[in-house]
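hey so u asked for the seq, here:
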Amino acid sequence: MRVHNAMAGVVRQTIFRGRDTMQLKTVTGVVAATALTLTLGGCSKEDMEEAKSSMEDAASSAAEMAEGAVDSAGEMAEGAMDSAGEMADSAMEATGEAVDAIGDAADGAMDSAGEMAEAAMDSAGEMADSAMDSAGEMMDDAEAAAGDMMEDAESEASDAADAMKEKMGDS
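ran it, structure tokens below
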């Protein structure tokens, strides 16, 4: 009975250390070693039945624990995949929003540039109109001044011609 309890304790410790297939193989090895030890030790049939029952219980517990571990790992993996999917969706949404914001900024910049170009064209047109008006006024002033100078020159020439006639007629 002591051997049975000691082996059952070893089996339990092995099961609780880990829950993957390597631990299950270790449990199976311990169970087989226990069966071999009991067989070679010349134990009674009752001891053998008890040991066999304990080993079956230990193997059943190990299988249940392994199944629970696999289920837990599956649930954890599913949760991780869901979280990763949500993170990817959030990243895609943020990227879309950033692209939209960049597009809006570019549209705003283009609108501003168009308005500035239009204002510059309007200002250039107004300056050209003002320059044309000024040039026209200067031409009118120059023409008027030239006309005045011509009239003055004609008047002086006429006065000079009259003065010459008088001096010639007097002589």
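The helical segments are 2-17, 21-40, 45-170. The chain has a mean pLDDT of 75.
lmk if thats what u needed
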